[in-house]
Amino acid sequence: MPPQTVVVGPADAHALSEPLFARLRELEEGTAEYSYVRNTLVELNMWVVRQAARRFRPSAEIHDDVLQVGTVGLIKAINRFDPTRGFEFEAFAVPTVAGEIKRFFRDTTWAVRVPRRLKDCRALLREQAVAFEQREGRAPTVAELVERTGLAEDEVVDGLRAAEGYGTVSLDAPAEAGADGLTLADRLGGDDPALGRTDDLVTVAPLVAALPERERTLLAMRYLQDMTQSQIGVELGISQMHVSRLLTRTLATLRSALADRA
């Protein structure tokens, strides 16, 4: 028969831990018996880690990592706990365990790297914002966060902006709740070819304005009105071949003027 895991409640864990802490103080650190007693204390008090982890609501992907980090905090608390000072172990361990978990979230779960100062600001702002929303039923303003946190207005603004780097959304995610099947990537804008011609138009405009009126009319009919050379010839009373020569000469003049400006 495989061994069965015995679930111990907080009250029983407290009662069983007291003699073990007394025994741990009598043992030399590094011995096999010391490790055995400490490991037993870790198993008995894992409920502290699980309870602390629930406060942070970790996602399924990092739940095990949070428990592992919390266990490191529990071991640190066990190593430092002195039962002769009259403190309850649970009260002593919770801040240490929670601190390790907070550092884990602060240092490893941000999607965008931001300075630690802004991470700390974000944590403080989130705590105060949640408390405010629960009490007032609305999100706090920047001024109200300044009043409640003691931070400067610039620090509050930077902290709120930094919070946007905590998580990311995949470009393959749906653009909105609809049936069109479009993703965020489908809604991203592209380069407008017309914008690339802006500099050219600004540069060419004074050169065109300096041309004789007939050449300007010829260019307008060909490139603005999209007329063929034959249609232009009929309109001006000249042959299509003459129109072609005029266009070639006019465009060569513009190219030469552009080359002189380069």
Automatic annotation (TrEMBL):
This is B/F/G family RNA polymerase sigma-70 factor. SUPFAM superfamilies: Sigma2 domain of RNA polymerase sigma factors (SSF88946), Sigma3 and sigma4 domains of RNA polymerase sigma factors (SSF88659). PROSITE patterns: SIGMA70_1. Residues 65-78 form the RNA polymerase sigma-70 domain. Keywords: DNA-binding, Sigma factor, Transcription, Transcription regulation. Pfam families: Sigma70_r2, Sigma70_r3, Sigma70_r4. The keyword Transcription regulation applies.
